[in-house]
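[Discussion] Sanity-checking designs against the backbone

I'm trying to build intuition for which residues belong where. Below is a structure token string of 139 positions. I'd appreciate it if someone posts a full sequence so I can compare it with mine line by line.
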């Protein structure tokens, strides 16, 4: 059974000692993928004060970026969006962000029909509002 660790420059770098993804046989397990931009680590729509407190964020812009990051990792691994089988979504504000996220998710996943779990978390390692954990197939 093939076991491969995958890193790519097309998605934001991991924040610790872990890969973007790991392949085991025909399954691909993506590490938590956030909405940071791969080129400069910026977070779309985020405004912070001098102390780093979040003043404003744009969950819609973050959704589009996190989906682009997941797609980039999948493609770097030899997989594709259509091969996603399971998604775990972490939101930092379920009450406010879920309606926007759910609408955009529907636009991206209507033909994929992946299993999905969405949970609220108090915070994520950077000031992002969304992170995805994805399992996909290869071949």
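Best answer:
Here's mine. Compare freely.
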């Amino acid at each position: 059974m093939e076991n491969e660790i995958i890193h790519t420059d097309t998605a934001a770098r991991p924040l610790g000692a872990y890969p973007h993804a790991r392949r085991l046989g025909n399954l691909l397990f993506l590490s938590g993928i956030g909405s940071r931009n791969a080129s400069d680590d910026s977070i779309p729509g985020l405004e912070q004060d001098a102390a780093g407190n979040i003043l404003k964020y744009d969950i819609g812009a973050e959704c589009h970026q996190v989906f682009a990051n997941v797609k980039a990792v999948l493609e770097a691994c030899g997989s594709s969006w259509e091969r996603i089988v399971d998604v775990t979504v972490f939101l930092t504000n379920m009450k406010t962000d879920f309606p926007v996220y759910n609408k955009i998710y529907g636009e991206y996943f209507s033909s994929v029909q992946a299993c999905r779990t969405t949970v609220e978390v108090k915070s994520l390692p950077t000031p992002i509002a969304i992170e995805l954990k994805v399992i996909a197939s290869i071949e």
